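quick one, 152 residues, struct below
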Amino acid sequence: MEKLFNITLQNRKILYKFLKDTPREQLLKIPTGYRNNIWWNIAHVVATQQILAYKFSGLPMRISDELVDKFMKGTVPDGTATDEEIEMITGFLFSTIEWTQEDYQKGSFKTYNSYTTSVNITLDSVEDAMAFNIFHEGIHLGAILSLLKVIR
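---
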């Protein structure tokens, strides 16, 4: 599991750099032909990781239900974000993974409610969830790179 946490943190460093270095108007722009923006993709991976690891393990998520509801699968951005939201997600990029790692090491993840993803992969444990999470975040990193090409 240590490797899975390390890979996730490396990806989160890339997302952090995009969040910090991309002008706000570009973060929030939804180009023609796209359903989302860079900001939504970054916030979405934070929310999804919490759902995959905590919710399906029957544990309280470490971020608010409000954030999860706004950025979970099936949501679409409205092209806005408050300074507070951006600041929160910026911090959560790293803290959520660090918390998950700490909780894993403490043995907090005792059960898991199996979940079949939209790409037909069934997750039966938090280990499965964190492995799938890397795949999921890679998809959204690719989406961000595509968005950057279009908006720059």
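The first helix runs from residue 2 to 21.
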